[in-house]
Structure formats: structure tokens, C-alpha cells
């Protein structure tokens, strides 16, 4: 119940296209859902986060869509650029995880020029 | 402002040896976290310090792992004796507020540990 399942494992998108990464969770106590972006040789960095009181949050070309009833959330990257090539991690936390982040396995995104 | 610094960036040791990883958090960040990622798998929480106290160590795999944060500044994570399954990337992160506030975590670049 403490798992976060992330898909796909890897994704190749043409420049200018839309990249979509999905995550699913089981624990209804989770109430914070961040996405982290990691470039090779660096640590993860917070990209965008959402709470379940809203269904969507947008920051520039990055959008989180949240479906509370389905217990799913996704990251959409519009107009994907080669500089977006990175590994993306979804995560979730709540009182039931002692507020520690439970992470997905990561998606390696490659944007082809 | 300096970010989170981890040392060494890479470590290759033999099974049974001891390795000590170090993390210097962002100055003023009371919260320090250790995580581990085994190749291709999810990032897993190991433990959380608030200043020099262990707030949550529920993710520590076993008693071969010892984390310390003397004086509430830098932290060390010692693995003794190392086993093959300990291989992975060890990340340290810090934040100014507690996990309950969903504060942004600042990560170091990680230590790639290979146990042969």
C-alpha cells in the first residue's frame, strides 16, 4: 500500500511533442504529490507539486493532472525540448508514511531534436 | 549559496570492507535525509535527522548501516561490513522545514557505491 507505480520506464518524444508520464498510488492517506527532475550526474530537483484539493497545476510547460478517485497523477510536458531530457520521478507522502516521500521508479525521458 | 555536497562521488570497495559517506547540507537546514537508489529501482528513504537527532530511521536496512550527525551539521553514513546488495546511489537531501510541511528537498549529486 506504500508503493507508487510509475510508467513508462523510458520514453522517447520528438522535439515539440507532448511527454506524458503516469503514476498510480494505493494509499488514500497520501496528500502531497511532487515530481522531481534529475539530470545525469546530479541529484533530483523539485519540478512541480500538487495537493489533492486541485485537479491540475500548471507551471510553464509542465502540468500535473491529478485524479483522486482513480488514485492517479501524471506529468505533462508541452512543447518538449532536448533540454528536458532527464529522469523524472513521481513521489507521494502523507501522515501514513510519516510524511516521508514514497518514490516511483523513475522515467528516463529522451527528447529527439 | 552552496548546495548540498556529498563525498565521495564514487566508491568501489570489496565485500566485507567499510565505507563512510559524507553529506554537507545547505547551511541552516535543520532537516537532513538519506536516500538510496538501486539501479533502475525507486528511490528509497533511509533516515531523517532533525538537527543532530534521528527523527525517523525506519528505512535503514539493517544494523550494518550507521548514520550520525554530530553537532547538527554534516552527516556521515557508514556501511560496515559492506555486502553486494548495498551497491547503489546514495543521496543526501536537506530542507529548512520538516517533512510534514512538504518542504522542498535539496539533493546532493549522490555517491555511487559499488560493492564487488
What does this entry look like structurally?
The complex is a heterodimer of chains A (113) and B (116). Chain A is mainly beta. Chain A is 0% helix and 57% strand. In chain A, β9 and β10 (102-103) form a beta hairpin. Chain B is mainly beta and 116 residues long. Helices cover 0% and strands 48% of the residues of chain B. Chain B has strands spanning 5-7, 10-13, 19-24, 31-37, 43-50, 53-56, 65-68, 75-79, 88-95, 106-107, 111-115. In chain B, strands 2, 4, 5, 6, 9, 10 and 11 form a seven-stranded mixed sheet that branches. A four-stranded antiparallel sheet of chain B has the order 1-3-8-7, with no helix packed on it. In chain B, β4 and β5 (43-50) form a beta hairpin. The N and C termini of chain B lie far apart (37 Å). The interface between A and B is medium-sized, with 25 and 24 residues.
User: Fraction of residues of chain B in helices?
Assistant: under 10%
Which percent range fits the helix content of chain A?
Answer: under 10%
Number of strands of chain B: 11
Give the SSE order of chain A as H and E letters.
EEEEEEEEEEE
- Uncertain segments of chain B are none
Taking the alpha carbons of the first and last residues of chain B, their distance comes to: 37 Å
How many H/I helices of chain A?
0
Summing up helix and strand content along with how strands pair, one would put the structural category of chain A as mainly beta
Shape of chain B: globular
Helix count from the secondary structure assignment of chain B = 0
Main β-sheet description of chain A: 6 strands, mixed
**Main β sheet profile of chain B:** 7 strands, mixed
What coarse outline of chain A follows from CA principal-axis ratios? globular
The Cα radius of gyration of chain B reads 13 Å
User: Radius of gyration of chain A, Cα only, in angstroms?
Assistant: 13 Å
- Uncertain spans of chain A: none
Amino acid at each position: 500500500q506504500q508503493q507508487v507505480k510509475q510508467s513508462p520506464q523510458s520514453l522517447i518524444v520528438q522535439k515539440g511533442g507532448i511527454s506524458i508520464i503516469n503514476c498510480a498510488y494505493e494509499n488514500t492517506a497520501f496528500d502531497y504529490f511532487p515530481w522531481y527532475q534529475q539530470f545525469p550526474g546530479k541529484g533530483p530537483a523539485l519540478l512541480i507539486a500538487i495537493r489533492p484539493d486541485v485537479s491540475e497545476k500548471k507551471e510553464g510547460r509542465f502540468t500535473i493532472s491529478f485524479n483522486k478517485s482513480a488514485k492517479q497523477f501524471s506529468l505533462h510536458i508541452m512543447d518538449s525540448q532536448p533540454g528536458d531530457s532527464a529522469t523524472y520521478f513521481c513521489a507521494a507522502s502523507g501522515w501514513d508514511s510519516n510524511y516521508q516521500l514514497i518514490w516511483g521508479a523513475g522515467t528516463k525521458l529522451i527528447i529527439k531534436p | 549559496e552552496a548546495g548540498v555536497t556529498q563525498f565521495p562521488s564514487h566508491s568501489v570497495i570489496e565485500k566485507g570492507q567499510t565505507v563512510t559517506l559524507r553529506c554537507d547540507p545547505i547551511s541552516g537546514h535543520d532537516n537532513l535525509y538519506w536516500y538510496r537508489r538501486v539501479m533502475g529501482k525507486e528511490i528509497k528513504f533511509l533516515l531523517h535527522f532533525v538537527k543532530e537527532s534521528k527523527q525517523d530511521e525506519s528505512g535503514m536496512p539493517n544494523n550494518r548501516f550507521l548514520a550520525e550527525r554530530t553537532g547538527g551539521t554534516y552527516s556521515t553514513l557508514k556501511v560496515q561490513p559492506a555486502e553486494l546488495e548495498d551497491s547503489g546511489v546514495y543521496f543526501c537531501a536537506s530542507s529548512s522545514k520538516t517533512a510534514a510541511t512538504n518542504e522542498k528537498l535539496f539533493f546532493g549529486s549522490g555517491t555511487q557505491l559499488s560493492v564487488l
